Amino acid sequence: MIVIYGIDEQLNPIKAKLSDVIHNVMQSVLGMPEDKRAHRFIPMDKSDFYAPGGRSDAYTVIEINLMAGREIETQKRLIKTLFVDIEQQLGIKPVDIEVIIKEQAPYQWGFRGMTGDEVTDLTYKVNV
User: Fold this and answer.
1) Which residue range forms the structural domain that includes residue 93?
2) Which domain of life, per UniProt (predicted)?
C-alpha cells in the first residue's frame, strides 16, 4: 500500500501520471506485478500541509508500506529511482519529494482472509 500526500491544487492534476510513475518503479525495482497497484492519494488544503523549509508547493510525501524482506540496497534503489523518474516525467525536483518506506513483518499484514506469513501464492518475491 502506498499513500501519497500533497497540496490538493498540485496533487490532483497529476495523480494518474504520478501513480503510473510510482507503479512502474515498483515493478522495475521490486518486481511487483501489474495488478498490485494499491495507491491512496491524500490531497490536502495548503493550510493543512506544512512542509520543511526550502520546499515548493509541489512538495509531495510518498509513504510505501511493505512486508519486511527487501534488502537495504534494493530499498535505496527504489527511493533513488523514484527521485529520478518523478523528476524526469513530472518535473518535480527531488528536493520536493519525500519517500518513506515502512516495513512490517508479514504476520502484520492481513489480506484475502489471511495474514501475510500464511500466503503461499504471491506472484512476486518479497526477499529481493
Assistant:
1) 2-118
2) Bacteria
Half-sphere exposure of 91 (CA within 13 A, CB side): 5
- pLDDT tens for 63-121 read 999 999 999 999 999 999 999 999 999 999 999 999 999 999 888 888 888 888 888 87
Whether 125 is in a domain gets the answer no
Q: What total of structural domains would you count in the chain?
A: 1
Q: Note whether residue 111 is domain-resident.
A: yes
Is 103:68 a contact under the CB 8 Å cutoff? Answer: yes
Q: Is residue 123 part of a domain?
A: no
Query: How many whole angstroms from its chain centre is CA 51?
Result: 18
pLDDT digits (tens, 9 = 90+) for 23-44: 999 999 999 999 999 999 999 9
Distance from C-alpha of 97 to C-alpha of 40, rounded to nearest angstrom: 16
